[in-house]
Amino acid sequence: MNSLANDLSRLSASSRRYLAARHRLFIGGEFVDSVAQDEISVIDPTSGEQVARVPAGGEADIDRAVTAARKAFDSGPWPRLTGPQRERMLLRLADLLETAAEEVSQIESVNSGRTLVATKAFDVDLSVDYLRYMAGWATKIHGQTMNPSVPYLPGGKFFAMTVREPVGVVGAITPWNVPLGQAIWKVAPALAAGCTIVLKPAEQTPLTALRFAQVVAEAGIPEGVVNVVTGYGETAGAALVAHPGVEKISFTGSTGVGRSIGAAAAQQLKRFTLELGGKSPMVVMGDADLDIAIPGTAMGIFANHGQNCCAGSRLFVHDSVYEKVIDGIARIARNLKLGPALSPDTDMGPLISKAQQQRVLEYIRSGVADGARVVAGGNELPGPGAYVQPTILTDVRPSMNCVREEIFGPVLAATRFRELGEVIERANETTFGLGASVWTQNLDLAHWFIRQFKAGTVWINTHGVLDLAVPFGGIKQSGIGHELGGEAINHHTTLKSVLASLREPR
Ligand code: ADP
After folding, report:
1. How far is the CA of 368 from the centre of ligand 1 (A)?
2. SS in 3 state form for 26-72?
3. Which ranges in the chain are annotated with CATH 3.40.309.10?
4. 402 vs 26, 311, 366, 392, CA distance in Å?
5. Which among 172, 165, 167, 168 is positioned nearest to 249, based on CA atoms?
């Protein structure tokens, strides 16, 4: 057997049973066959082999799912439950997902190529924590009161308040890089706010969303509140965006697709939040603590195989520490053990697909053709797996594709700098604006970078760390709106203003 392929006998009996099962769409509280009858072949990227098949839902399936979500919102119990009732249901969902942790992380690892440590941490544990975090928000959604003066009605007395109401039916479209994690980022706030939802997971990684649907059914979430339709983006995804029964689209994915989704949603003046691509800079100053900066920047790019929207894919190192930092990151890159997701000694699995592997390799090749130097990695591993070595390119120029465009793979483009003015200009010289980090021990410098970086999130002496309580979103071509924290509740509610004329009691 190819040693770079997953040994599926490592899977638990329940995971194997799940993979072998006939998968169906989850609509109106039931698992149902797709009207479309087409199927998607689900691939293990360590081997290129099919591990499951799921329905390729189409427009008619989306219509059924939206109709179910619409009914659940318009006349079902969910939006009418009290905060504490929704809180209890979300806590129950979290408990049941936690119980299924081993199976869910195994399925996710087989399907996404990421290690069990990664899928357990980011697809299961963080999802469980987020459901609990959002359960807490269900009891804390409220408006404000105001004391209006209404100057053009002198003598009038008024009282005013705002009320937050659930936005309605949410259409959620998610990517393949952290499949269940991304789905729960959308499901949890929607449920806490009293919305209903139709989730369309990425066609490459649909399995854990459907497994989560089982958890939803088991938890007793009312029918139609959560619906999962697997399918392709151009068909199922586009139908969800276009459906007039959907009030809000929550999308995470590439900038190109996000732009077309935003345009389509705007046609109907539908609300939308877009979490898109990035080309985030990491700046290492001469005074940085290199014992932290070297492993930190290495993980800033190589975590999740570089398949992170906030990956630190552009590195700027001060001239005085440049060689030391590049040598240190290169040593880490060379020591990362590439291998199958299910092997306990693997540090980094394959990319999501052969297509993605070839795309990433093309960026490396074009960088080299334009004069970049490979100081670590640079190649695929032989065989059918979608492996790419963690790669560091130096001698890069701002005009190169590997510096300008999002690669979504383990490729770092590194350059040196001497002046502050020079580095901030180059760090901000990107169409994206998702994240940025600076590594320094100087407080004044750190605060200067906080103000200067044009990015939705700034990290100091770390990169890519996200927390459930901290809003996450991009500026420029990296998106519109935020996920996580209280902002996620704001994006799933609408504000109703109430103004009352007061009279003296008679
Ligand atoms: P990637 O390039 O990382 O695969 P995409 O932006 O293509 O990212 O995909 C992210 C999600 O968007 C997936 O669920 C995909 O099916 C969906 N998608 C792709 N194209 C469209 C589209 N035209 N309309 C709606 N959803 C889409």
Report:
1. 29
2. EECCEEECCCCCCEEEEEECCCCEEEEEEECCCHHHHHHHHHHHHHH
3. 281-468
4. 40, 14, 8, 11
5. 172
Q: Is 234 in the pocket of ligand 1 (CB under 6 A)?
A: yes
Output the CA torsion sign for 19, 20, 25, 29: negative
Question: Which ligand 1 atom sits closest to the C-alpha of 177?
Answer: 3
Structure confidence by residue, pLDDT tens digits, 348-388: 999 999 999 999 999 999 999 999 999 999 999 999 999 99
Express each pLDDT in 12-25 by its tens digit: 999 999 999 999 99
CATH architecture for the domain at 281-468: 3-Layer(aba) Sandwich (3.40)
Beta strands in 33-181, from DSSP E residues, in sequence order: 39-44, 49-55, 145-146, 158-166, 169-173
Q: Would you identify the CATH topology of the domain 8-276+480-493?
A: Aldehyde Dehydrogenase; Chain A, domain 1 (3.40.605)
Catalytic residues: 275, 309
Which band of pLDDT confidence, cut at 50, 70 and 90, is reported for residue 1?
A: low
Tell how far the Cα of 257 is from the centroid of ligand 1, in angstroms. Answer: 6
For residue 477, pLDDT beyond 90: yes
Has residue 506 got a pLDDT over 90?
no
How far does the chain reach from its first CA to its final CA, in angstroms? 89
CA dihedral 435, 438, 444, 450 (to 10 degrees): -10
User: Amino acid identity, residue 284?
Assistant: V
The reply to whether the predicted model has a pTM over 0.90 is yes
Residue 270, classed as helix, strand or coil, is coil
| Average pLDDT over the chain, rounded to an integer | 97
Cβ 254 under 6 angstroms from ligand 1: yes
Measured by CA distance, the residue closest to atom 11 of ligand 1 is 175
